[in-house]
Specification:
The complex is a heterotrimer of chains A (312), B (340) and C (306). Chain B is an all-alpha fold and 340 residues long. Chain B has helices spanning 6-32, 38-42, 51-62, 68-81, 94-129, 134-148, 151-165, 188-194, 198-235, 238-245, 250-259, 263-287, 293-300, 306-334. Chain B has a single domain, classed as MetI-like (MetI-like fold, Orthogonal Bundle). Chain B is built from 14 helices and no strands. The chains are: A alpha/beta (312), B mainly alpha (340), C mainly alpha (306). The complex binds adenosine-5'-diphosphate and magnesium ion. Adenosine-5'-diphosphate binds at residues 17, 24, 26, 44, 46-52, 62 of chain A.
């Protein structure tokens, strides 16, 4: 992909979690470029490493995470080998919208304290009044009454919580917003409302990275899409291209599943262990061949559409 | 911070009151069902020529010829009137002996907890923030030893050590000062302060500090362990991670997010450790030659001073209820999710 | 819940292998247990260990400055007590008392507590109200004063201390069980059993106890060092109160009796206290090791990353 304006760039990025001395790799050498000022969706089944990638971008990897390779956010190197440094990035350039907004708010603080704590620090202001002014503007943008400020998180509904989380993000005004499964806990109506709020963020020229397992939601929101499988990106490209011309058998499987078309594939419930060497999909691939024991690299058929598969 | 409703407070106090009644009933039931004659127990298992007489008097006092419920009623009634009987060992009213010793023990406990809680919280936070580093390891081992070493043993070592240095801190007050302070509260520390005798105040505080430090060891070590554990646990919570994502500073996250969530646990902890600390106070008092509940028990045991022991049981039971009620209310106030 | 505990802990062998704390604690406790068995049958001056003032003991005359006691020396590594009895023998013989008292209190309290907790959490509301009241009541009774009362009633001896501790420790396990049972009884598998018409007693025996007991048991092991120290503290008071020399070789009593001599003859209180401290340390390491194995994240390499 040739792009001048890159918000996030990963090069051979490996991220694993240390479990009782063993390292469990969640990302197996990922190369990805996320363009600025677009909505970029990452789709894939659960456990494929989407959240890990999202957390790596947002700077939320746990302390026992192990890293290899490079990750740049806005041309600032945040991961370089085992060096991890998010200072000046987290909370100013990139902010994450949580999956479950209610458990992501401090239960002991009123919403106004959450806002004022964060905004005072973000904009280096001392007065609470000024911080709350910004908060009120942000709440208006997401259609919440300002009396929400006086409430505790447990007094909010799920939809309100989601909008508070988005309002916080708007108030912080970062360049990149990472939303991890922003709609998985919401009903269809709230899903639509959230979709609109997220579109507003992109409209303001921000980069939006949405993690979802819902390919329909992704197609409605994003202009780029990346499909992940067992810690690898298997297909990437403009949303229309990927959806109209899916090249990877796994992408096809996902699209079929979203269309409730289950004729052509055998859905494997039991997934084999991550295959670090070969193609992640090989064990259930209909076109499986001997080359699949070697890991395929992303191969670009045009300047934006790439696929990692030997059997095109 | 929110205020608990009046309803909740009344309910809590009513519960406490019923538990107090239960304790009083229990103390009577203990006498009543004791093997042999209850009057014999109440009279302190007397032997010798005057035994007969003492047992007669005790029978009268307890009203053993009346039905049991009346006896219990009389017992509780007398308790609330302040007529707790006569201590066999001290030949004084039990109420007097108990208050005197209770104040002495409280003096020690208050100083001990004022050391233990702040210090425990600070060291616990340090330990959690530097988890796995040398400071943390040292604090972990230290708190482990402080919890597992009997405080009376540490007190003995400390006492002998002070002796070797030539420091004598036996008792609550220098004997020469004893008659120089007018007793108002019964605590020499407070009384001397009220009457403005700075040199006596300094002396009594100096004598209270070493035993108080030893009583403080256990609650302090537990606080360190609990804070270290719960802060690490809280730092795994989604809301702390999210706060990081919003760019909150490290100190804000630790103090306002993680530590704030630990307050209910700490409050509950000290409601419980208080019970242990009373036992520690009792042993330490005996080593440092101070008055107090523990000393009173040690003096009561050889005389089978049953009225005194019952008085101590009732009073320390009530003390626990008070402490636990306060700790419950703090827990409720400090957690907005609990509806009251 | 119970199953998770079992599968996490695996075998004893595994525990010793994976948790350093557990293996240190286990070693200490094992050594004390072996000493207690050996000491029960044999010790250097066995009769003196059991509290008998032998003629040999009476004839011992210490040298200045230890007069009239024996300082620790080659024959009596821990010295002798005020009756001339060899302290090492008394500590060895007394080891079984410390362990028996602790084990009795912990296990009886757990059994009673689980019973009380299930009665409170899994029967009708009247029993629930009564049991929770009883739990609240017993929880606030101070063990030390209760022990003193029992001593006045049934006489001096470790049974008073043991009963007092059981009465004051079991409500803690009852409360914990009650909390667990209240969570359990809302779960589907219990509800299904009830709908199928199994009796409550059967469900309690078959499903609730197996789920609650392991957790309470872990709690009990964690608490056992506190129990040991509480027992020792109360025995300390009894020892301190005693007007005549203590015959029963209980560690706490020896320490307590010894404080009247502590300014000069420190070893009488020091050495038994040291053994209490060691045993308690072993027990607490055991408990810490267990709970770390149960919540593995406690062991994680941890540095603040923000
Ligand atoms: N905090 C963590 N600690 C240990 N392992 C984790 C952690 N988070 C994720 N993993 C593991 O990493 C893999 C990828 O998980 P994740 O990134 O959450 O995938 P997704 O979001 O696509 O469901 C999974 O196998 C998961 O078990
Ligand atoms: Mg996820």
């Amino acid at each position: 992909m040739v792009l001048n304006e890159v918000a996030v760039r990963a090069r051979n990025l490996w991220i694993g979690y240390e479990e009782e001395g063993e390292i469990l790799w969640a990302l197996n050498g990922i190369d990805i470029d996320i363009p600025k000022a677009t909505a970029f969706c990452i789709v894939g089944e659960s456990g494929s490493g989407k959240s890990t990638l999202g957390n790596a971008i947002a700077g939320l990897l746990p302390p026992y995470a192990v890293t290899k390779g490079r990750l740049d956010v806005y041309n600032i190197s945040v991961i370089d080998g085992d060096k991890v440094d998010y200072s000046g990035v987290r909370g100013s350039i990139v902010v994450r919208i949580p999956q479950n907004p209610l458990s992501a708010l401090n239960p002991y603080l009123k919403i106004e304290s959450v806002f004022s704590d964060i905004l005072k620090q973000r904009f280096r202001i001392n007065s609470k009044v000024k911080a709350l002014e910004i908060a009120q503007k942000a709440l208006k943008a997401v259609d919440l009454p300002s009396d929400v400020l006086g409430r505790y998180p447990h007094q909010l509904s799920g939809g309100m919580g989601q909008r508070v989380a988005i309002a916080l993000t708007i108030a912080i005004d970062p360049e990149i917003v990472v939303a991890d499964e922003p709609t998985s806990n919401l009903d269809a109506y709230l899903k639509g409302a959230t979709l609109n709020l997220l579109r507003d963020i992109v409209r303001k020229g921000k980069t939006l990275i949405v993690i979802t397992h819902d390919i329909l939601f992704a197609s409605a929101l994003c202009s780029f899409i990346a499909v992940m499988l067992m810690g690898n990106v298997v297909e990437i490209g403009k949303t229309e291209e990927v959806l109209s011309n899916p090249l990877h058998p796994y992408t096809r499987e996902l699209i079929d599943a979203a269309n409730l078309n289950f004729k052509n594939s055998k859905y494997a419930i039991n997934r084999s262990k991550t295959n670090l060497r070969g193609c992640a999909y090989s064990s259930r691939c209909p076109k499986h061949s001997a080359r699949c024991y070697e890991k395929p690299k992303l191969f670009y058929i045009n300047e934006s559409h790439g696929v990692a598969c030997w059997n095109l | 911070m929110k205020m608990p409703s009046l309803n909740y407070i009344i309910k809590r106090i009513a519960t406490a009151f019923f538990v107090v009644l239960g304790v009083l009933m229990l103390t009577y039931v203990l006498i009543y069902f004791s093997p042999g004659n209850p009057a014999y127990t109440w009279a302190g298992r007397p032997r010798g020529p005057k035994a007969e007489e003492a047992i007669k008097a005790a029978e009268e006092e307890l009203g053993l010829n009346k039905p049991l419920y009346l006896q219990i009623y009389t017992h509780i009634n007398r308790f609330f009137k302040g007529d707790w009987g006569l201590s066999l060992r001290f030949k004084q009213p039990v109420l007097l002996v108990v208050t005197r010793n209770l104040v002495a023990s409280l003096e020690l406990l208050v100083v001990a907890f004022s050391i233990a809680i702040p210090l425990g919280i600070i060291l616990g936070v340090v330990s959690a923030l530097y988890r796995g580093y040398l400071v943390d390891k040292v604090l972990y081992v230290a708190s482990l030893l402080l919890i597992s070493f009997p405080r009376f043993w540490i007190a003995i070592l400390f006492y002998v050590f002070l002796q070797m240095l030539g420091v004598n801190l036996f008792g609550r007050i220098a004997p020469s000062y004893m008659l120089m302070v007018e007793s108002r509260v019964g605590s020499y520390i407070i009384d001397s302060l009220i009457s403005g005798r700075v040199e006596i105040f300094a002396d009594t505080l100096m004598r209270a500090l070493p035993p108080a430090v030893i009583v403080a060891l256990y609650p302090m070590a537990l606080t360190i362990r609990v804070i270290r554990f719960s802060i690490s646990e809280k730092l795994h919570e989604e809301y702390v991670r999210q706060a990081m994502s919003y760019g909150l500073s490290r100190s804000k996250i630790v103090y306002r997010y993680a530590l704030r969530g630990v307050i209910p646990a700490i409050s509950q902890l000290h409601g419980i450790t208080f019970a242990y600390s009373i036992v520690d106070t009792a042993t330490v008092e005996n080593i440092f030659g101070r008055d107090g509940i523990g000393s009173a028990i040690v003096k009561a045991i050889p005389y089978n001073d049953y009225p005194l022991i019952i008085g101590l049981l009732a009073v320390s039971g009530i003390l626990f209820i008070v402490v636990n009620t306060v700790s419950d209310i703090i827990q409720v106030i400090s957690d907005p999710r609990v509806r009251i | 819940m119970g199953v998770i505990v079992k599968s996490r802990l695996g075998s004893l062998h595994n525990l010793v292998k994976t948790s350093k704390k557990f293996s240190i604690g286990f070693t200490i406790v094992l050594v004390i247990a072996i000493l207690s068995i050996v000491g029960f049958f044999n010790s250097p001056y066995h009769m003196e260990g059991w509290g008998i003032v032998t003629e040999e003991a009476m004839g011992r005359q210490g040298l200045a400055p230890c007069l009239p006691f024996y300082c620790p020396n080659a024959n009596h590594v821990f010295g002798t007590d005020d009756m001339g009895r060899d302290l090492l023998s008394r500590i060895l013989v007394g080891a079984h008392l410390a362990l028996i008292q602790t084990v009795t209190v912990v296990f009886t309290s757990i059994a009673l507590g689980v019973l009380m907790g299930i009665a409170a959490g899994y029967s009708n509301t009247v029993v629930e109200k009564l049991s929770t009241y009883l739990i609240e009541l017993l929880i606030i009774i101070p063990s030390m004063v209760l022990a003193a009362a029992l001593i006045a009633i049934i006489g001096r001896g470790i049974q008073s201390v043991i009963i007092a501790l059981i009465l004051t420790w079991s409500p803690w396990y009852a409360r914990l069980t009650y909390i667990l049972v209240r969570q359990l009884r809302e779960l589907d598998f219990i509800k299904i059993c009830e709908a199928m018409g199994f009796s409550r007693t059967y469900i309690a025996y078959r499903h609730i106890v197996p789920n609650v007991a392991p957790l309470i048991f872990i709690e009990g092991i964690t608490d056992s060092s506190s129990v040991l120290i509480e027992i020792a503290s109360i025995n300390f008071l009894i020892g301190a109160a005693s007007l005549t020399s203590i015959d029963l070789p209980d560690w706490g009593m020896i320490v307590g009796y010894g404080i009247r001599y502590v300014r000069t003859f420190w070893w009488i209180s020091f050495f038994p206290g040291l053994f209490i401290a060691l045993t308690a340390l072993g027990l607490i390491l055991l408990g810490d090791g267990l709970s770390e194995t149960l919540s593995p994240w406690l062991k994680r390499r941890w540095k603040l990353w923000f």
